[in-house]
Amino acid sequence: xxxQAPPTTRIPQIVVLSYRLGGTDGVSAEARKCVAAFxxxxxxxxxxxxxxQADWPEPGLTAGGYLTGKxxxxxxxxxxxxxxxxxxxxxxxxxxTTVRNMFGPYPPSGE
Length: 111
Fold this sequence. Notes:
5-stranded mixed beta sheet
């Protein structure tokens, strides 16, 4: 009798998406808490940010003119789609949203 391989467990993939992470501001602090919580649950967490500590840096996600006084470059849509489509959950800022809603109409209905 041949031994069966143990069942594989898929590790949930989480992407944190923000204009800036890794600083001392409130958004960065809350994002660190979210990342720690997801990792404690066994999730793989990566981040896609405009500036700061980023696994996937994307200058097109930097804060816009309302915060910096200058417009950011256009985001690399193919990079965004690639990273987001590989995720099970995308966390935008501090609000969690499903990947399905990421490229849908904005604002998503019900918000």
